[in-house]
């Protein structure tokens, strides 16, 4: 099999993207069984593949908001799909719908993918729900294009002008620059139901029924929980107090220091775990902005119908004439936080964070001391091992010297054995030679003695 399709899920933000990406990560093996490759990142995360958008923006010299450590390159994603034998490469990131990802970025993406057919998946959400959700998220993390410093009443018109919120302009740019095979839309359920959302997404991607059921049934917990209105207003006050250092659309603003992100994350954890009564949770649009958002919702639905885009879900979720607002959750209807209350709350949370950080610092110091002790212990062991190794080496050298000496002794003994055998042979020959030479005179002498005795006997008889 060879890769013959790319599905690009572009978000946009606050349309259930985090939940969808978590389900895709959890179902990646099941997806691959049906020929769909969803690239993993390093480290593994449930945040999609934002680094793919960053890579394209960096190539164009645009500022990149690297708010995640999850990374995979285009080469890795494409080669991974080919090696897995997949027919479809499925990608997901809200960064493809950021304001910086413009016409030039989509053209660069088109060049990067060559002739591969592309299908775009875009989620529609009622602007009357989408705008306050985007504002809350920006205020929550203290990061945005300036809306994190504004009240919702002031921020709503700014957010409403974003191409991905307007929908028409954004999809028009995709059509002209990316030249996709088609654009598939899904609607975000008015009452959030992750199972329904996941099923609509899978249908928009044109996945098989088995895959759709697997994704729809996947429930993944996320840390993208909405905060109550009172907490959002508290964070807005903190953002405004720090706002003098904000520089919109700069690399510094796009990439805040890691320690500020960590402090904000701790602050959010504290806000989410406090037991105090926080009041209504969902943030509603101020009454002054609702007519504009309602008109936008109606125009989006009309335009989608006129363009005959394929839609998974109900367009009634995008525009409902009878939508009911919770007036208790209108940010403009909430009294401003008293300065004393703000100071008290801020001091409480920041003191708690400082205490936690100090405890962690002390734990780190203790850990480093233990590491140093362990290193010293191992250094002593290394010295002992080195000393013993030297002794062993010396003993081995001495053993080799003894072996050499014994071999030399054995060689000498062998030499002397050979010499002794030689001398024994020589002595044997000499003995044989001299014994013959001495025997003859003795025999002659014996014969003479016998003759003498015989002569004596003869003379005595006479």
| Average residue-wise pLDDT | 83
Overall 3D shape: elongated
Q: H/E order of the elements?
A: EHHEHHEHEHHHHEHHHHHHEH
SS class? mainly alpha
Query: Major β-sheet, in short?
Result: 6 strands, parallel
Number of domains: 1
CATH topology: Rossmann fold
CATH architecture: 3-Layer(aba) Sandwich
For the structure shown, list the relevant keywords.
61% helix; 462 residues; Rossmann fold; elongated; six-stranded parallel beta sheet; mainly alpha
Describe the protein:
The chain has 462 residues and is mainly alpha-helical. Helices cover 61% and strands 6% of the residues. It contains 16 helices and six strands. It has helices spanning 17-26, 28-33, 50-59, 74-83, 103-113, 127-141, 152-160, 163-166, 168-177, 194-204, 209-217, 229-242, 251-254, 258-273, 290-307, 339-461; strands spanning 5-9, 36-37, 88-92, 118-124, 182-187, 311-312. It has a six-stranded parallel sheet. The longest helix is centred in the last third of the chain and has 123 residues, at 339-461. The protein starts with a strand and ends with a helix.
Secondary structure: elements and pairs:
Blueprint (H helix, E strand, L loop, with lengths): L4 E5 L7 H10 L1 H6 L2 E2 L12 H10 L14 H10 L4 E5 L10 H11 L4 E7 L2 H15 L10 H9 L2 H4 L1 H10 L4 E6 L6 H11 L4 H9 L11 H14 L8 H4 L3 H16 L16 H18 L3 E2 L26 H123 L1
Question: In a nutshell, what does this entry contain?
Answer:
This protein has 462 residues and is mainly alpha-helical. The protein contains 16 helices and six strands. The chain has a single domain, classed as Rossmann fold.
